[in-house]
Amino acid sequence: MTADLFDLEQSRREAPEAPPRPVPLAEGAVLFPGLALPDVPALLAGVEAVSAECPFEQLETPGGGRMSVEMTACGVFGWRSDRKGYRYAPLCPATGRPWPPMPPAFAALSRRAAAAAGFDRAPLQSCLINRYNHRARMSLHQDRDEGELITPIVSVSLGVAATFLWGGLNRSDPTRRIRLAHGDVVVWGGPSRLTFHGVTPLPSGEHPATGPRRINITFRQVTTDMDNFSTP
Ligand SMILES: O=C(O)CCC(=O)C(=O)O
Ligand SMILES: [Fe+2]
Predict the structure, then answer these.
(1) What is 21-55+101-220's CATH number?
(2) Where are the domains of the chain?
(3) Can you give the pTM of this predicted structure?
(4) Is 109 helix (H, G, I), strand (E, B) or coil?
(5) Shortest CA distance to 188 belongs to which of 144, 223, 231, 137?
(6) Is ipTM > 0.90 here?
(7) Ligand 1 pocket, residues with Cβ under 6 angstroms
(8) pLDDT tens per residue across span 52-76
(9) How close is the Cα of 132 to the center of ligand 2, in Å?
(10) Å from CA of 230 to ligand 1 middle
(11) Ligand nearest to C-alpha 69
(12) Sign of CA pseudo-dihedral 192, 136, 147, 229
């Protein structure tokens, strides 16, 4: 554990009321402990509303398996995975209709987090919602299906805490294990935009806000074609 992460765990124990300081992970990447806590009710209500319109689904992988994570999305683009591969898509597969619009509280949090990390652009075109049940995981990957790599990724964790794997720009680079708790936000962009990352299998647990699950919300910019895909 680095000194910064050690300090974070210590400050969480000693002063649970005080918002802990941001933790730099790498150039262009920062963890904001608890940044989303004031938004939790709006975020959870938004997840409910979005999934009522476009239900969570365990997507098929190109290899024919199923992802352990359940996914849905809102905004102009959602994400699809099937035998044909991975891609962003404008329609919810379950309904064939456009993805639900991004709730205003989601967009506001994305803007706030990107600005706090020093970026002048916030990702607002796509919001992917991952739901992790016990043992669900996400293997080490880069977020590179976006045709736009200037804007950072903003990632929000809710519910049961998870272990985030934070690697480097090569798959074989060593990974750090970072605990992501309820309300934590990670932003990565600039030289860190293509950092390999993943989530280890979710431990069994219980959180008052989400029960035995973890919800992860990531914001992305998908295309530079701003004329046809305007941001909210
Ligand atoms: O669940 C997380 O914290 C990360 C999710 C992620 O990497 C993704 O959706 O691409
Ligand atoms: Fe990712």
Answers:
(1) 2.60.120.590
(2) 21-55+101-220
(3) 0.92
(4) helix
(5) 144
(6) yes
(7) 128, 130, 138, 143, 155, 157, 164, 180, 197, 199, 216, 218
(8) 999 999 999 999 999 999 999 999 9
(9) 14
(10) 24
(11) 1
(12) negative
